[in-house]
Known about the structure:
A: 220 residues; alpha/beta; D-Maltodextrin-Binding Protein, domain 2; 2 domains; five-stranded mixed sheet; elongated; disordered N terminus; B: 321 residues; alpha+beta; BirA Bifunctional Protein, domain 2; nine-stranded mixed sheet; three-stranded antiparallel sheet; 13 helices; globular
Amino acid sequence: MKESLTATGGSPGGLTIAVPRGALLGDTLDLLDRLGIDTAEVRSNDRKLLFEDVGIVTMRPSDVSTYVEHGAADIGITGKDVLLEAPDRNVYELLDLGFGRCEMVVAARAGDDVLGESLRRLGRVRVATKYPLIAARHFSETGRQAEIVTVKGSVELAPLTGLVDGIVDLTATGKTLAENGLEAIEQIVTCTARLVANPVAHKLKAREIDSLVERVRASA
Amino acid sequence: MIHPIPPGTRDVLPDEMRELRAIKDSLRATFEAAGYGEVWTPALEYEEVLRIGDENAASAGYRMFDEQGRVLALRSDMTIPIARMVATRFGDEGPLRLSYFGQAYRSVEHTSGQQREFLQGGIELIGVPGAAAEAEVIALTLAGLDAAGLARHRVGVGDGAMYRTLLHALEVPRESRGPLLSCLARRDLVTLEARVTALGLARDARDILVGLPELRGGPEVLERANGPAGDAVQGLRVLYAALEEKGVANRVILDLGLVRELSYYTGAVYEVYDPAVGFTLGGGGRYDDLIGRFGAPRPACGLTLDLQRVHVAQAAEERLR
């Protein structure tokens, strides 16, 4: 709830909105358009991050919950994967927006059973991921010992070079997996875009947030 | 030479200390004038004694052994130590009004920007049941923050037992209640809605369970809660009337979805907000069973503030002037 933003204009409801760049950006801006928020400048300028006139700040999806938790944005849009990977973030999860549908999966080299083999002979699987918490929880809940290797870049590379037996990653179409000779072998959870709110803004700007939530529901 | 201190702790230098001290002095003077005498309890307690108050020892994050091998814990809140002190040091005389200032400790994620040592200040009103006592504590906290230089702060008021009561009244199967309460505590309203819908209840029961956590605002909130929810908000109705009598109702946000994470609250719960800070400035509630767990049952309620966050709000307020 940074006042410098809301005092100089902000979105129609006076809210500061954290908008994720990347795969969720297009659908998010379409949604904001339907709510009557002018996103033309955001669309035309992919280097600028702060759009004070319309109360929009843009950032990586994984930063949205951080900005919203600290109140630097009142509300935000991010993937369920981000929320699951950082469960201690104190934000309200208000709405499932439905778009940005992806599967969090375990994937391994197509054709041979590397994971099963590794588990049977070595007593554990090695898995690379950008989602260490989700991966660790999935293997723990399914009663398998796993060594989780956290990587930041293209996860698909890890099993191809022998770094790990398999990966845990988000996939929308499975295309990137297939192009790298990998296949999804277990579904962990379906992730869609969520509307989140700062807990203090949720009380002090209740009317603005409720009106926005109602309009999102109506536009769905 | 740079010698590190643990993340989430801090050195306070004279400029900051002067301002922090001024805030503390304003609060202390307000509390003292209302008859709330200041007390001091140790930062270190026996862990097993804290566990009497809360089974997680109020999530104490730091433990150590003393010379005899007994487990000590750094307190993570002030209310349990004060409940212990009241049961130990005081008889059954009339109402007790106490205030305190002191450091408490919680373990935090290293990179989250949260404090692991934080300065708390607050009040406890012991031996008085009912809404008038709660209104007194809320009004005094608001007044203390006025004196400290805040202007736009509000207190959110809810009933920590309400949703549980409602699940019972609407005959939600026992095994489904825990997961629903846990969604509410995690503020995950998406999963809450999905789980409630999956129960296959009658339309209005479903609407109450899904819609109630989002009801917050002025007294109109109480009007909008009807049927079984209307019975469940009866306690809040009485509290709101007491707050009106104190002349502070316009600075209170009724919040039917409010829950506090500590297990010792038995009824009304409170949170303090300021638009300049994204986190709550403090919180509290009624804890009628807690002192009894230490062997001397007395109703009580209290409210605590995080003074460093109050300082952030006060500094922001000064910039606006």
